[in-house]
Structures are given as C-alpha cells and as structure tokens.
Amino acid sequence: MELFQYALDNLELLLTRTVEHISLVGVAVGIATLTGVPIGIAITKNERAAQIVLYIASIIVTIPSIALFGIMIPILSLIGQGIGYLPAVIAVLLYSQLPIIRNTYTAINNVDPALREAARGIGMSPNQRLRMVEIPLAVPVIMAGVRTAVVLNIGVMAIAAYIGAGGLGTFISRGISQSDPRQLIIGAVAVSVLAIIVDYSLLALQKRLTPKGMERAAATA
Amino acid sequence: MIRLDNLTKVFDTPKGAVTAADHISMEVPSGEICILLGPSGCGKTTTLKMINRIIRPTSGKVFINGEDTTSLDTQDLRRSIGYVIQQIGLFPNMTIEENITVVPKLLGWDKAKYKERAREMMRMIALEPDAFLKRYPSELSGGQQQRIGVARALAADPPVMLMDEPFGAIDPINRAVIQDEFLKMQQELKKTIMFVSHDIDEAIKMGDRIAIFRAGKLVQYSEPDELLAAPKNEFVESFLGEDRALKRLNLVKVRDLASDEIGLVRPDDTLETALQRIDDYGYQTSIVMVNAKRQPVGIINAAVARTTKGHCRDHFQSVPVVVNLDDDLRKVASLMFSNDMTWVPCVDDDGRIVGQITQRAITHHLGSRYRAHSGAGEASPSSSASEE
After folding, report:
1. What are the chain B neighbours of A220 within 8 Å (beta carbons)?
2. Phi and psi dihedrals of B198, rounded to 5?
3. Which of B127-136, B149-158, B175-184, B251-260 has the lowest mean pLDDT?
4. What ipTM does this complex have?
5. pLDDT in tens, B160-207
6. Structural domain contains residue B376
7. CB–CB contact A114 B91 (8 Å)
8. What does the alpha-carbon distance between residue B375 and residue B379 come to, in Å, rounded to a whole number?
9. What's the Rg (C-alpha) of chain A?
C-alpha cells in the first residue's frame, strides 16, 4: 500500500523516466534495425562473411553490459561523451545486432528455393527478387528479431542509469544507493511491465506487417 | 522454334567433373511440344534449365526463333520465356492477380492492360476471375495452384515455354484433367514448348516429339509413334516398357485405320439377304442394320437369320457398340475385348455409319511398323524395365 502511494506520488517522474527509457531503446534498436537488416541481407550472398559477422555479433552479446559501459567511457571521453546518452545508445545498438542480423539472415536464407527459382525463371533481377519476394516473406522473422532485441535491451537500458543515461534504471540505482526498497521495486516492476507491454505491441505490429497470404500458410504450418 | 546447338554442362563436384549434358543438339519446330524424357539424373532438367540460364551452359548455344540467345540480357531472355516448375512456386505474399501479372508488370505494361490480361488468363484456365483474383495461393487446391502457375507463365504471351515436370505433384485424376485442358489451350496458343517428364505415358499423351536422355546424352529424338515402333537401342526399349505396342494404341485414331467397306442391311431386307451378306463380308456372328440416314439401329444375329424367316426389321437386337472416327485405338481395343468382337462399326459426328475397324487392321498396323523397323527379324528378348 505504501508502495502504491509512493508510485502515485511520483507518477509524473515515473512517466518521464518511462518515456526516457522507451526513447533510448527505441532510438538504439531503430538504428540497429536500419544497420542490421541490410547486413543480414548482404551476408546471405557469402557464407564465409556470414559466419564471421554472426560470430562477432555473438561475442558482443557475451560482454556484460557494465563492462561494455566501462570500455566506452575512456573511448567516448575523447569526444566528451564518456557517460550519458551516447554510450547507452551505442551499447544497445551493439547488443541488438545479433538477433536482428541473425533473424534477417535466417529468414532470407530460408525462403523456399522453389520460389527463388520461380522468381529467377520469370525474369526478376536480384533486387526485384529481394523487394518483391524475399523481404516480404522474411518480414515476420525479421520482426521477431527486432522484438527480441527490444525486450532484451529494455533490461540492458536499466543498467545504463549507472552511467547517467536516465530511464527507469534511475529508480533502481537510487533505491540501492539510498537503501530505499520502494524505489528499487517500483523501478524493477516498471521495467518488467514495460518489457511485456512493448513485446505484445510489437507482436501486434508483426502480425500487421505479415503479408496477407501468409497468415493462413503460417497458421497451418 | 527452339534450337540447341551442342549444349553442354559440366559440373565441378568434389568428386571431379561431371558432365550433366553432353553436346545436346536438337530442334523443336514452332508450335510443337517436345518432351524431354529419361530417368533421374539423365540431364533432361539440366538441358531445360540451360535454355533460360537458370543453369549457365558450359558451352554450346541456344537459338530461339533463329536468334542466338547468348547475346541477350538474362532478365530479358527469361521474361520472354514462360516458365512452369513442379513446385509451382506461386508467391504466397501476392494475390492470384499479382502472381499472374508479375511478368507483364516487369515488362512495364500499363495497369489497365495487365489487369484485363489477368481476367483473360483466368477465363483461359477455366477459373472464375471474380472468385479467385483477389485470393491468395494458400487458399487454393494444388490443381488450381498449378493452373495459376501455367497462367503466370503465359501472361506475357511468350512464344516459348519451358515446363519442368509441371504436373508431377498433382494427383492422377486432376493431372489427367489438367493435361487435357493444357492440350486444348495449346491447340489455340501454338506455343513452342520444352517439357520435362519422367512419365512415359504423359510423354506420349502430351508430346509432338519425345527426346530420350540417358547419362547426359540425347539417345533418341522422334515422334511418339516412331519412338514406340522403333526404339533405337535396348535402353530406350526398356525405358518405354514391354507394353509399348499397347501404348501406341493411344496415338492412332480410328480414322487412320477404318475401312469404308462395311456390310449393312436395311429394315426391309429379308433375313435371307442378311445371312448372305454375313457370309459375303466374312462376319461370323452378325451384321448391322441401318435406317435411311445410315444410322445404326440394330444388329441381325447370324444364328437368328439361319433359323428364322422374315424381315430384318422384326428380328434385330440392339447395337452393342460403335466408335467415332476420332476415338483412339485404345478405346476400340478395349471395346472389342469386353464385347468379344473382332470388328466394330465406325460412325461420324452425326452418328452415320461410315465404315468399320477390325482387330486384324489394328494388329496389322502395329505389326507392320515393327516389321519395317526390326532388322534381320531376330527378336531380341527385351530386358526388364529399369525403374528410377
């Protein structure tokens, strides 16, 4: 009850932090999608390159976020951005690459070879094949990758509060440093709820973006 | 016209170079269907796919309507060739209309023209445009999907079509229906078609010519009747099967073998006359009675004529069977066997008797082609058919 009262009292701050949190993750994953999807498509042309790229992306994900922030502080300090917004966005951007690149790569590679042959056989250029056939068919799987990236990084972004990036993590970090369980719990619950809501919204978006004719095919598959 | 000139494909595999197609040279005249036939791995599909460069030839040339295609841009070449594959390959993200109009769109037709073309194609393949154009491939049955596949290949009205086992994945009943529909369309469209099949019956039914492949080489290239009558070697013989003489029955029409000599009686003739004619024409059991329009109305049995007096009109039985001039010999043979007859009266489209076809004429026809082609007359025992 006390917790609920606290949340109500700080509702405005809670909303500000939530918006901050969403915009941080949104900007980072947005940029990650713009880079990851083309990279994922590009590496379908070359298996060797695909292995290397996916390997690097996997290694990046294994770096603990606290360590990644630590590495970036001296580097980004050179341009006066050692802490705050920029390193937080860069970290999420890097973490997002693996699910987005991997899903894009898998989806494009898994397009039915018969469809690819039909597309070639009727005279589509490689670009037309991508645009008219391969990408539309890959959209659901690519979107699933984006969803994974977003949910994963809503958690990562909570830690970015320690380098002053803001967001819901500030409740958690303050809760710990001030030994205030109310802030700690409010922060943790807000992060979880946000992750769940965003996941469902993106799932709805994914369904909207799935080409119509594939809904039934997907349902029966 | 499609002409292949020493078309060769050598694949580099870890086990060394494999020649999938070895100096294939052949010509398909305009408006004809050429079936590429052979066991799997014989090079028929490789040969087909080199024509639209899905597989790049190692050497050799392809000419379409006299033009060397080597100089053409690959995409332009493919857009000018209809392509149908066994897996159908309709794009699941596009409606039926979008699937059919994909090539016209690539060719830059304007919207009104390609939309009208889609409706025209639907009527051609006997599917209701309004019911299907806005639907998606996943909502259609396999047979309907392959009809759309054919429509997509024909949409831009290409002079040449390549079909890679197009009806192979469809159940036998639907396959026969689609084959018939396709042949009907072809009679009007007169496309020049290369068609890969591994089914000898399909080849005989669909092909104006059949090319038999084995181990990358073109073994025999003949018209179906010629192929069945005179297989070039033991491989072709065994591939065609030991019942190849029966398969020829499909290829010959009653018209080709019917004799216009037929003994008939009128209702007013006496049974005595009937008996006389039965003997004159060498019929053992019966003779046909016709009306004034020469339409068969009954038969007079020899046994009845021998023992009874009177007029034919009072002593006839119903006609067991007649065949049309456009029926094939397979049907005739079947009717003869099931009715224990050695001859069958033939009628024209108006049902008038125009002649007869005899068992002897059929066996003679099949046999004469064999005798003409078999060499010194020694019958080599045909080896057992090799299955794929």
Report:
1. 138
2. -115, 10
3. B251-260
4. 0.82
5. 999 999 998 888 888 999 999 999 999 999 999 999 999 999 999 999
6. no
7. no
8. 9
9. 20
Residue B99 lies in a domain: yes
In a domain, B383, yes or no: no
B179 plus B321 within the same structural domain: no
Q: What is the pLDDT of residue B369?
A: 62
Of B89, B92, B162, the CB nearest to A217: B92
Give the domain extent around B89: 2-250
SS3 label, residue B318? coil
What φ, ψ does residue B156 adopt, rounded to 5°? -90, 15
Q: Which residues of A touch B157 (CB under 8 A)?
A: none
Min distance A125 CA to chain B CA atoms (Å): 7
Contact call for A133 and B93, based on CB within 8 A: yes
B169 backbone dihedrals φ, ψ, rounded to 5°: -100, 10
Q: Do B102 and A122 touch (CB under 8 A)?
A: yes
Q: Into how many domains does chain B fold? A: 2
Once rounded to an integer, what is the mean pLDDT over residues A194-200?
95
pLDDT of residue B365: 84
Q: Is the minimum CB–CB distance between B92 and chain A shorter than 8 Å?
A: yes
Q: For residue A129, what is the nearest residue in chain B, using CA coordinates?
A: B91
The answer to whether residues B45 and B174 belong to one domain is: yes
pLDDT, tens digit (0-9, with 9 covering 90-100), for A110-162:
999 999 999 999 999 999 999 999 999 999 999 999 999 999 999 999 999 98
- What are the start-end ranges of the H helices in A78-180? 85-109, 113-121, 126-129, 135-159, 169-177
Give per-residue burial for B342-374: e unless 16+ CB within 10 Å, then b.
ebbbbbeeeeebbbbbbeebbeebbeebeeeee
Most B CBs within 10 Å: which of A122, A133, A142, A209, as the mutation test of the B interface?
Answer: A122
Residues B338 and B216 in one domain: no
Are B246 and B263 contained in the same domain? no
Position A84 scores a pLDDT of 86
Give the amino acid at B95: T
Confidence at residue B372, expressed as pLDDT on a 0 to 100 scale: 60
> If you compute the radius of gyration of chain B from its CA atoms, what whole number of angstroms results?
26
CA of B75 to nearest chain A CA: how many angstroms apart?
5
| Residue among A121, A125, A211 whose CB faces B85 most closely | A121
Is residue A215 very low, low, confident or very high in pLDDT (cuts 50, 70, 90)? low
Do residues B219 and B351 share a domain?
no
